[in-house]
Amino acid sequence: MIFLSDLDGTLMNSKGEITIEDVEAIRRWTQKHAFGFVTGRDKAFCDKLAQKYQLTCDCMITDNGANAYYKQENVYSSLIDLDDGMQMCKKILDSKVDVFYTDEKGNRYYPIQAYGVDRLHVFEKKQPSLGTFSNIDILEYLKNRTVGLAKISMYVEADLELLLDHFKRLFKDYEVMATSRDYIEITRKGTNKWEAFCHLPIDDAIFIGDGENDLCILKNLKDTYVMNHAPDIVKAYGVGVMSVAQAINIESRKEHV
Question: Which of 18, 194, 200, 238 gives 224 a disulfide partner, CB atoms 3.0 to 4.6 angstroms apart?
Fold first, then answer.
């Protein structure tokens, strides 16, 4: 049996930290069972997080389902065509939204030429969990890239719903979703966490999440948990809990009944 956890808002707090209780619960669980991350974050971030807290991850679904890894091997990818991705970035720039791309090594690229270095530094201070950005402009980077894009990310300080509707209309042939209260992300059509899960060599799993982008998994797995702060539409598809540790403890008790 494998226990899969969303990261932001579920396993991690707003500072990108995991509580001691959750870490200890996961370590106990992985003495007998498998564990994995399911997240919008990139693999480089997930690897660093697992290393920091000394967690064993047997699989990872990253980039909102654009990539799936089993035993560190990439078993599934759903990428945006590179030329299409470049055109989307240019259209997003017209809307004056903070757009960026994260590559496979965790390097992040921002529209420095369009927005300027000062705006980048302000953005970095607002979102410190993202780390430092490359000094290479996003469009310059994409010109030299040879493969497709896992996802395009946008940071939105205000009017998220209005911008979400705008970009859904603008990019109707892609998946456009709000992954948190201040982020909009774009992936290839049909890309989601459940589709990625179906490409893993796993028959069944336990899952915990907190966002609407987790619904695709919550609706399809039998044993599911949701954080108590999740929206009502999400709460309808899982047992409400306060933490990952609480969910793991419930599952552990089931084994001894």
Answer: 238
Q: Structurally, how many domains does the chain consist of?
A: 2
Q: What is the pLDDT of residues 164-181, one digit of tens each?
A: 999 999 999 999 998 888
Does residue 39 share a domain with residue 117?
no
Please, where are the H alpha helices in 78-205? Answer: 82-94, 112-115, 117-126, 138-144, 160-170, 193-197
Q: Which CATH number does the domain housing residue 7 bear?
A: 3.40.50.1000
What are the tens digits of pLDDT across the range 186-233? 999 999 999 999 999 998 899 999 998 999 999 999 999 999 999 999
Burial of 94 (0-12, 13-18, 19+ CB in 10 A): exposed
Q: What are the respective helix, strand and coil percentages of the chain, to the nearest 5?
A: 40, 25, 35
Which DSSP state fits 128? G
Domain CATH code at residue 163: 3.30.1240.10
Query: Are the CB atoms for 39 and 61 separated by under 8 Å?
Result: yes
Tell whether 92 and 71 lie within a shared domain: no
pTM (2 d.p.): 0.93
pLDDT tens for each residue of 90-126: 999 999 999 999 999 999 999 999 999 999 999 998 8
